[in-house]
Specification:
With 284 residues, the chain is an alpha/beta fold. Helices cover 28% and strands 12% of the residues.
């Protein structure tokens, strides 16, 4: 069973196995249909396509939610069933951004109790580099599969939880965005810059070594042990801009063998919907 990462050579020997489900998660904020077009041109044979906005996010309510709300369990069950996800099947998800998008689907599946899901280390680029076969054939949705969810209620938290964590030394809150967004020096996406005042910063991109491959388990363990200190991993909350790339940190943490942290699903774009919530910036 693969429950965090999987390498390309291993996937090459299993991708055609009917008990394996492959899902392409390529997506770009600047061109939201670019990933779908790329998928339609070429993808790992048999792979389904997961669109971040349509499949991996729920409806946006202006002024009430972040940019990529966590989907309802009903919505996820419907889509996972159509993709043929069953408890005995190994799921592999990939993108072309080092797992930045695919980790969201990894987290959603893990959250709903499916442990056999892994992100392809190195993603689409690694698959091509290993001369993996490609196809433009789009598989049909499954009609006789029913995904059975078993949601973990402790892994997903909201703004109220994060606010209460301010006065509870038990919890650690971590911002997964780049340092310039955390500091407030540069905010290219959201209308308000800054961060949750009591949050530390651990940019998700620092989980990579080169060519979008994850760092070694030892390197990741050292990174996150230094971040966590004495805080238990289960009492650590990660957020980002909209609840997507924070999953990359949670994945890296799990791959390092340290356990599963919590996700603030709405993240920064949700936090700033309430002007009464405090905001901090870091002087340069």
């Amino acid at each position: 069973m693969f429950s965090t990462l999987i390498d390309t050579p291993t996937l090459l020997t299993h991708y055609a196995n009917p008990d394996w489900v492959i899902i392409d998660c390529r997506f770009a904020l600047a061109d939201t249909e670019g990933g779908r077009r790329a998928y339609q041109e070429a993808h790992i044979p048999g792979a389904y396509y997961a669109h971040l906005d349509e499949d991996l996010s729920g409806p946006i309510v202006p002024g009430k939610t972040g940019r990529h709300p966590i989907p309802s369990i009903y919505q996820l069950v419907q889509r996972f069933s159509q993709w043929g996800v069953e408890s005995h099947k190994q799921v592999v998800v990939y993108d072309d951004k080092g797992g930045a998008i695919a980790s969201r689907l990894w987290w959603l599946l893990r959250w709903l109790g499916h442990e056999k899901v892994a992100v392809l280390d190195g993603g689409w680029q690694a698959w091509l580099a290993e001369l993996g076969p490609t196809s433009d054939e789009v598989p049909a949705y499954q009609e006789d599969v029913q995904f059975e969810p078993d949601a973990n209620p402790y892994w997903l938290v909201n703004a109220t939880f994060v606010e209460q964590a301010r006065d509870d030394e038990q919890y650690l809150v971590v911002d997964s965005r780049a340092a310039e967004r955390y500091s407030g020096a540069h905010e290219p996406i959201d209308p308000v810059s800054g961060h949750v005042p009591w949050a530390l910063n651990a940019p998700f991109a620092e989980n990579w070594s080169k060519d979008f491959h994850f760092k070694t388990m030892k390197e990741l363990e050292e990174r996150f042990q230094a971040l966590l200190g004495e805080h238990p991993v289960e009492d650590t909350v990660f957020y980002c801009g909209s609840g997507v790339t924070a999953c990359h940190n949670i994945l890296a943490l799990a791959h390092a063998g340290l356990g599963m942290a919590k996700l603030y699903g709405g993240s920064w774009s949700d936090w700033i919907t309430d002007s009464n919530r405090p905001i901090a910036t870091t002087p340069e």
